[in-house]
Structure formats: structure tokens, C-alpha cells
Amino acid sequence: MFDWIVKTVADASGVTNQLKIAEWARLNRTNPFDMGAKNYQRCIHDLGLGGKYYELEYNEDGTLKYQ
């Protein structure tokens, strides 16, 4: 399902949004293609692309927890 979401965002807004999502994922130390639904919603919320605000949770090593 996540792949479908990424494809939809890319089709609607172009490659620029994909790059923004990839950068957000890099800064939060997570995989942009497998971060979990809540993290993805927070990502697109932070980028002003819709989404929903969820608290981010991190693992002890500083990577973003899958949620």
C-alpha cells in the first residue's frame, strides 16, 4: 500500500515531493519506502502535503520507530 501512496503523490505533484519525502526520511533516519503509516502521515503533514500529526517515536539508536 505504501508504494501506491508514494506513486500517487509522485503522479499528483511530481518528483519534487518524492525528493522531499526522501530527505525527511533521511533526517529522521528511516527508510522512505517502509516507515509505517503513522510516520508517513506525519511526514506529509510536516511537508505541508496533507497528512496528519502523529508524535514521532525513536529507537535507542536514534532511528525512527516503525509505526
Tell me what the structure shows.
The protein is mainly alpha-helical and 67 residues long. It has one domain. It is built from three helices and no strands. α1 crosses α2. The longest helix has 13 residues, at 15-27. The chain is globular and about 35 Å long.
How much helix, percentage-wise, in residues? 40-55%
Q: Give a short account of the largest sheet.
A: none
The separation of the N and C termini measures: 14 Å
Structural class: mainly alpha
> Can you tell me the residue ranges where pLDDT is under 50 for at least 5 consecutive residues?
none
**Count of DSSP E strands?**
0
Arithmetic mean of pLDDT: 87
Net shape: globular
Beta percentage is under 5%
Radius of gyration: 11 Å
Quickly describe the structure.
The chain has 67 residues and is an all-alpha fold. It has 3 helices and no strands.
Secondary structure elements and their pairing?
Layout lengths: L1 H12 L1 H13 L9 H10 L21
Helix pairs in contact: 1-2
Task: Please supply descriptive tags for the structure shown above.
67 residues; mainly alpha; 3 helices; globular
